Each structure stands twice: as C-alpha cells, then as structure tokens.
Amino acid sequence: MFFERHEGGENAILVHLDMTDDKEREDPHEFRELARSAGISEIDFVTVSSNKPSPRYFIGQGKVEEIQQLVKLHEADVVLFNHALSPSQERNLEKEFECKVVDRTGLILDIFAQRARTFEGKLQVELAQLQHLSTRLVRGWTHLERQKGGIGLRGPGETQLETDRRLLRVRIKSITKRLDKVRKQRDQGRRYRKRAEVPLVSLVGYTNAGKSTLFNALTESDVYAQDQLFATLDPTLRRLDLPDVGESVLADTVGFIRHLPHKLVEAFRATLEETAQADLLLHVIDAHDPERLDNIKQVHDVLEEIKADEVPRLQVYNKIDLLENVEPKIQRDDQGKPVRVWVSAMQGEGLELVLQAVAELLGEDLVQGTLRLEPAQGKVRSRLYQLGAIQSEEYAETGELLLDIRLPRHDFDRISKQEGLQKSCLVER
C-alpha cells in the first residue's frame, strides 16, 4: 500500500461551522459519530457561527486564536473540520495550529482506509486518498528547494515536490488500470447472472441504517455489522431464495452520507455499479432517526450521481423496535404494489414481509394458468416440480395431464424453449 495505515487513537479538537445555508450545513452529531468511527478521542468541540467561510482560514481570526490556545492546552494531535477545506486553508491552519489539520473528506477517507479488507476495497481507498493528496502535495515539502548545481549535480534538477507528483501520477495510473480489470470481472459476473436470469437485489441506504444487520438476517450470514458509520465497506453478495421467484442474489454495499466526497464516488464506481445494475433496490431507512427525511434525500442524490435513480425501489423502514406502538407491516400504493415495509432487523421482526414484498416486485411477470401435457412429456412435469411451480394436477379424460402452474415467466420461457412446448399448451388466467 502507498499509505501506512493507523488505527486511530489520536486526540482531536473538533470544529463545526454552523452555516445558515441548508445545502452547506453539516450535522454536528454525525460529525462526532464520524470521529468516533475513526477511533478519534474528542478532547474539545468548537462551534463557529458564520454565514460565509473565511477564504484564508475558513473560520475567523478570533476562532483561529481560540483553537490555537486549545491545541496547546490539550496537546492535541489533530484538528478536525466538519467541512471540506481547500488545500491553502489546510496549510494556513496547520501553520497557525502547529499540528495536523484534517477536513471532512480526509476524515471519511481515513475511516474507509481502516475498514477496507478486500484487495479491491484497499485499491479503491488508496486511489481516493491519492487523488485527495495530489492537490495538497506542498505540505511536508516546504523545507526542500530545487537541487543546486555542482559536481555531479549540474543540470535543471527536479524538486522533491515534482518527483512526488510524478510518482503519484504513476501510482494513480497503476491503480486505475487494476480497477478497470476488476470492473471487467464484475461485468462478466453480471452478464452470467443475466444469462442465468438470476435477479440482483441491492441494499442501499444512509450509513448506519442497519443494512448489514438486515443482510445477515435475510441470508443467515455473518457480515460485520456494528453501530458505527461505514461499518461495511467491501460489497458482499449472497444467495437469497424468494417465494414464487426462486434464486436471487442480495448485495450489501457501502452506506451513503451527505456530501459524500466525489473522489470516493469515483473511486468506488466499480463497486457502486452493483447498485446501478440491480433489478431492485432495498432502501434501508433508520425509522428512529429524526433526520431520516433528509437522509432519504441524500441517498437519492447519490443514486442520481451513479445513475441508479431509475432502478425500482422498495423502502425498508428499519429499527421499529426503537419506536412505540409500531408493528411490522407492508404499505402499498393505490395499485396494491408494495412501496414500504416496516421491520426490525435486529429483533428479526417483519423479515418474512420483506421477502414477500421483494418477491411480489420481482415476480410481477408470473405465468399462472393450466398447462396441458402429453403422457410422453413427463420430463417437463419433473422440471416444474423441481421449481416448485405446480399447484395441483389432474388427468383429463383424453389421458393428458393438466397442471395448475405458477412460476416466473423467464423460467417458463426457458423450459418451453428447451422442451419444445407449444403456446397452445398453456391457458393463462
């Protein structure tokens, strides 16, 4: 890896700018959760009220001096900002505080670096880190000057900064090439599922909404699930058997967050394509979170950015065990189509309703009717029984077998093609 990873544990002063513009405003509680998830020890929290950030320091001169004193008093290792800082603002603040300054993007990148477990995940995080670092390379090299001429050193020379930029470009190019290979492998997997007509259901939602807990409950898996932001980073795929639909694939993906750094969206595009290519999205929502409506909007914004906003969606309101007098249920639209399911993944309540709603949405195109088979077509009957598609059967006076069937149309079409069934054999209802 290009970076040495640390496991957090630094003492930090947290700085939050309370802006009046709703589009720019960040959540201070979420900021604290991000710091906790990174393993940071909060030693002070500073709130700054301002309508417009300062171009030089992002905050006013008075607050700079106040934080400067706090850094010396607490011997802070780092000052975290709940906002994106420009490279020049970071450098100016570090010069004043005489310690490391990390903005919101850098903090999220650090959490991702700690969470990445797979080779692909580590590559994606490193790419995002390198892209973020490339605009901040002046830091750390201010003591170096262009090499001076002399014996054995004559010529134009190259500054350490230029050398490092060149190394960064080479590394970024190498990682991008590897991720392109991963993307092609994922495309192959998706094409195989398409050919096998296995539907893909992808979990999406705001970070810490309970996606991994729901994933584990539905698939009887043991994916890492904790009460912390970005507990899941690497995507996980598991088989999921659905009534009337049969085999499908359920994908657990990284959680979204407001103002998700664009560099992360770009770096994780190969992973997020699982979401964009899904047949159905399960949008998991923390029903107990007072900010849930805003979180829903933030998820929609990210889905729009990765071109997944047109994929059919089912809302899953999770954590109803934290609410009073709320029972598991399915809410439907005017056409009777499932639009929302209320569950508690932690308590295992309402899971069968999720499966029922997903099956209804994926199995909208079902074949239901009476299939007439000749006595010699016993192989067709056997295959339909294997799929659990036969509801009942009886013999006609002519000796033909009458099967009452119900199964996904793609399964019926495949059997019809392979066994040479005629359209006249089926009377749909």
TrEMBL record:
<dbReference type="Pfam" id="PF16360">
    <property type="entry name" value="GTP-bdg_M"/>
</dbReference>
<dbReference type="InterPro" id="IPR025121">
    <property type="entry name" value="GTPase_HflX_N"/>
</dbReference>
<feature type="binding site">
    <location>
        <position position="232"/>
    </location>
    <ligand>
        <name>Mg(2+)</name>
    </ligand>
</feature>
<feature type="binding site">
    <location>
        <begin position="318"/>
        <end position="321"/>
    </location>
    <ligand>
        <name>GTP</name>
    </ligand>
</feature>
<dbReference type="InterPro" id="IPR032305">
    <property type="entry name" value="GTP-bd_M"/>
</dbReference>
<keyword id="KW-0963">Cytoplasm</keyword>
<protein>
    <recommendedName>
        <fullName>GTPase HflX</fullName>
    </recommendedName>
</protein>
<dbReference type="Pfam" id="PF13167">
    <property type="entry name" value="GTP-bdg_N"/>
</dbReference>
<comment type="subunit">
    <text>Monomer. Associates with the 50S ribosomal subunit.</text>
</comment>
<keyword id="KW-0460">Magnesium</keyword>
<dbReference type="InterPro" id="IPR016496">
    <property type="entry name" value="GTPase_HflX"/>
</dbReference>
<comment type="function">
    <text>GTPase that associates with the 50S ribosomal subunit and may have a role during protein synthesis or ribosome biogenesis.</text>
</comment>
<keyword id="KW-0479">Metal-binding</keyword>
<keyword id="KW-0342">GTP-binding</keyword>
<dbReference type="GO" id="GO:0043022">
    <property type="term" value="F:ribosome binding"/>
</dbReference>
<dbReference type="InterPro" id="IPR030394">
    <property type="entry name" value="G_HFLX_dom"/>
</dbReference>
<dbReference type="GO" id="GO:0005525">
    <property type="term" value="F:GTP binding"/>
</dbReference>
<dbReference type="GO" id="GO:0005737">
    <property type="term" value="C:cytoplasm"/>
</dbReference>
<keyword id="KW-0547">Nucleotide-binding</keyword>
<dbReference type="InterPro" id="IPR042108">
    <property type="entry name" value="GTPase_HflX_N_sf"/>
</dbReference>
<dbReference type="GO" id="GO:0046872">
    <property type="term" value="F:metal ion binding"/>
</dbReference>
<feature type="binding site">
    <location>
        <begin position="205"/>
        <end position="212"/>
    </location>
    <ligand>
        <name>GTP</name>
    </ligand>
</feature>
<dbReference type="InterPro" id="IPR035647">
    <property type="entry name" value="EFG_III/V"/>
</dbReference>
<feature type="binding site">
    <location>
        <begin position="230"/>
        <end position="234"/>
    </location>
    <ligand>
        <name>GTP</name>
    </ligand>
</feature>
<dbReference type="Pfam" id="PF01926">
    <property type="entry name" value="MMR_HSR1"/>
</dbReference>
<feature type="domain" description="Hflx-type G">
    <location>
        <begin position="199"/>
        <end position="366"/>
    </location>
</feature>
<feature type="binding site">
    <location>
        <position position="212"/>
    </location>
    <ligand>
        <name>Mg(2+)</name>
    </ligand>
</feature>
<dbReference type="InterPro" id="IPR006073">
    <property type="entry name" value="GTP-bd"/>
</dbReference>
<dbReference type="InterPro" id="IPR045498">
    <property type="entry name" value="HflX_C"/>
</dbReference>
<feature type="binding site">
    <location>
        <begin position="252"/>
        <end position="255"/>
    </location>
    <ligand>
        <name>GTP</name>
    </ligand>
</feature>
<comment type="similarity">
    <text>Belongs to the TRAFAC class OBG-HflX-like GTPase superfamily. HflX GTPase family.</text>
</comment>
<dbReference type="Pfam" id="PF19275">
    <property type="entry name" value="HflX_C"/>
</dbReference>
<dbReference type="InterPro" id="IPR027417">
    <property type="entry name" value="P-loop_NTPase"/>
</dbReference>
<dbReference type="GO" id="GO:0003924">
    <property type="term" value="F:GTPase activity"/>
</dbReference>
<dbReference type="GO" id="GO:0097216">
    <property type="term" value="F:guanosine tetraphosphate binding"/>
</dbReference>
